[in-house]
């Protein structure tokens, strides 16, 4: 496994770059009721959505910051730009995009991914989706894949039925903030019996400084349907902090299956505070695959409410924390019906003084007869300055539940490194090999192209000197 020296430069060019700010419309920094109403006015939204935003803003003002987990006191809500529209029109042709945006997405590989691997693609730049494309055969089958703003206008009855029902504004401060100022994100509707073999892909890019991105994603999978939704996230590095606070709601119907994959490569000035929640009906399968490589602070705990008999929830998680980074990630599984099953597999890596934590909850309710759950938390620390913590919580209300929990902590073994180095492999590549082997149970679940990208990201992070 020999990596050319240019790899590090290539990654700095591909992900760490910034472009000149382009905007056709920008709201001044700061958050007031007027800000919220202005966002709704710009989007020409119906009254019910404007009212939803204003009520959410009032909830946000009253909600306190989380008193647990990482310190979020450096977030300055008064100096964040809450809405920036980079271009006036949404495009379905790549060539029609403004040069700065097109160059940005060319660098991170969106056109190649669209042509080779995807059934549909959506690209969000700052606050708005700027590009959308979907396989016409899927359109003929009734599949809907569009940005959330379009869905509010074109499919209002469907959106109103589900929007904010799994994650109401009252859930937490950042869910309330998203509900007040959300913009962009994805809407997916899978008709009954329709199965999509190739992934639907969304790309989210923050380019501006002191910016807040608040996309809203809603996925509805009707009975017997199947879809894999993937998202990638990047941003340039600035000396000032930015905020990414998304909300994702997923509804999985009877015998349906949804997989939601995230490969996050935010820069080290981004607070990544995301609420993701799914509901699985009878014999439904909901799978979260969550790969957190970048950001300054990540707090993310995708959950599944197993409400139907025989429903299954899966959470496969990778978190890598480097210098100055806190990755506080995990999952929540709520067993609310008989014969439900769940699995949580968490792999965390910390280096150069980074902090990686698993924070999870499994609740087996009184109606969850013969429920089964398995939780595995594996941590690898690459130096003495780094830290790994595990905060598991089990709430078991039945005596017939089958519960497994396992946790391990290890260091990068010198014997293994010596063995590989003695075979002519550089120490840097040996470290990357061992780390990639450690995360392999999760990375093998990702489509090939994204698995390769994840391994490249891991190698890039590992190329930074330890200690």
Whole-number average pLDDT? 83
Q: Low-confidence parts lasting 5 or more residues at pLDDT below 50?
A: 1-24, 114-118, 235-239
The largest beta-sheet arranges its strands as: 4-3-7-10-13-15-18-21-23-25
Please tally the helical runs, counting DSSP H or I stretches of 4 or more residues: 12
Based on helices, strands and strand pairing, what is the structural class? Answer: alpha/beta
Tell me roughly what share of residues is in helical segments: 25-40%
The percentage of residues in β strands lies in 25-35%
Notes on the protein architecture:
The protein is of the alpha/beta class. The protein has a domain at 21-300. Helices cover 26% and strands 35% of the residues. It contains 12 helices and 25 strands. The strands form 3 sheets. It has a 10-stranded mixed sheet. Helix 2 (33-42) packs antiparallel against helix 3 (47-62) and helix 10 (414-422) crosses helix 11 (427-443). The model is unreliable at 1-24, 114-118 and 235-239 (pLDDT under 50).
